[in-house]
Amino acid sequence: DGMALFTGTKITDAAATAFEGEGMTTRGDGFFYDGFTAKGMVSLVGATFGGVLTFRNAHLATINEQPALHCGGMQVSRGLYLTQGFHSDGEVRLIGVTIGGHLDLKGMAKDCGPLTLYHAAVATIRDGGAETWPAEALLDGLTYNAFDPYQPGKQRIALLRRQRDGYRAQPYEFMAAYYRALGHEEDARAILIEKERVRRIGG
Q1: Could you give the 3-state DSSP secondary structure of residue 27?
Q2: Does the predicted model carry a pTM greater than 0.90?
Q3: Which helix (H) or strand (E) holds 25?
Q4: DSSP 57-75
Q5: Tag placement on the chain: N or C end, fewer CB within 10 Å?
């Protein structure tokens, strides 16, 4: 109950689910990193980590239509790290997760599958700008307190353009409110103008 350690573990003979951690609870950290490999879904639905959860340099792949990483409703007290060569051949589904620290995407492989953050709540998103993210992301309902590093709103519009499944108002409105709260009204206006442009063309 103090730590979940799977450093370098390789699971390649699963029928569908490579790792079943639904509802698991640890007061400490979760380490699925430094060569952790799973062919088949890694499920951490409803799991709770009292520290950090890291998939640094992990390699995940789905073998059917399921997500490669499924973490619906998961709670991480400190940070979730999909960094330093993390690669997912398939969706990373983080629906309704709560992350008390960083969601760190720096160094994520550029050809990862979609990143779904529907109704996720994150303290800080750490990235290298929109180019850090997968080509497709679902941001509807996502809330956050800050980006690290800070970038002007006009640069963050590139992230909103990666939104999958058509037009959604909330990602634009939340980001505009974020910049407005910082006193950056021009950035907020630029984001809302982009929202209207995308709405008019139907996503």
Answers
A1: coil
A2: yes
A3: strand 25-26
A4: T-EEE-SSSS-SEE-TT-E
A5: N
